[in-house]
Amino acid sequence: MSQALHPMLNVAIIAARKAGSIINRASLDIDQLKVTTKSTNDFVTEVDQKAEQVVIETLLTAYPGHGILAEESGREHGAKNSEYVWIIDPLDGTTNFIHGLPFYAVSIALAYRDQVQQAVVYDPTRNDLFYASKGRGAFLNDKRLRVSKRTRMAESLIGTGFPFRKGDNFQRYVKMFTEVMQACAGVRRPGAAALDLCYVAAGYYDGFFETGLSPWDIAAASLMITEAGGLIGNFTGESDFMYQREVVAGNPKVYAQMVSILAPYTHVIKEGTAPVHSEGATLTPEEALIATQAAPPAAEPEKRKAVRIRKADLPDTQSPQDSARRTRPPRG
Q1: Domain identity same for 170 and 136
Q2: Can you tell me whether residue 142 is helix, strand or coil?
Q3: Which residues pair with 282 in a beta bridge?
Q4: Which of 98, 147, 162, 264 has the most CB atoms within 10 Å of its CB?
């Protein structure tokens, strides 16, 4: 790499490549995999576990005082009260991997006081390394990333992911999918959200939306998008998305048009309305995640309302009025 990287980012890259090596070796003999079902259509393999183990060992060897939030082991490892937390998905796209479909990735993010500062998403099948440091841009290998420049939803290619777990509100998703599909040029669903979101940062997609995602699916790629000049938020356009199990992303103008479509379907638990502990404290991020999983389906929208778009941590080159003034285009 031609540029000097942040030391913490360097460690994350080393960890991601180690995990990628484990995944690539296992992909040569998929029939020998031991697959366990966590829940309906939600699988974990020994490769997920081994990859996660090597990532955690690499990170904690370098930074033993840091916390860990990982898909397979949760907060079992690392410091429990650190302001630094590594958010890890050792194999995003496990179902693809099990079937030999080469679209999956290792995702590692470092959050400091709940703000993602360093990010790596590694695609071992293509040896594609997406990485970003807050305020220093996003890159694919040595190439600087920028989101696409398309301005009309009708010309845009949109990525998504289908609900697949038992209890997911598939009918709600179908309504969203129908509206988005009729408004854009095409929709794609490869099956690994971390890579999908990186493809928004790279300009391959103009936008992306999905429900049911967890922090480890989106943390690293969210920094790629904002560092590439894009926007990411919940369905109402606000920056509270990490633990809300709904996300929309895109270049600023397409993002605004997607929010106008998706806002009526939001399932966000608002601050001040979430359940509280007996001591009166508000929910932790992890408890908010659980609460959104248990929340009832959103009511079917009656009509569209004006949407306020918030821009979080955008480059100075973005116009503060770009997103807020977008409205839904005519269906084409």
Answers
A1: no
A2: coil
A3: 276
A4: 147
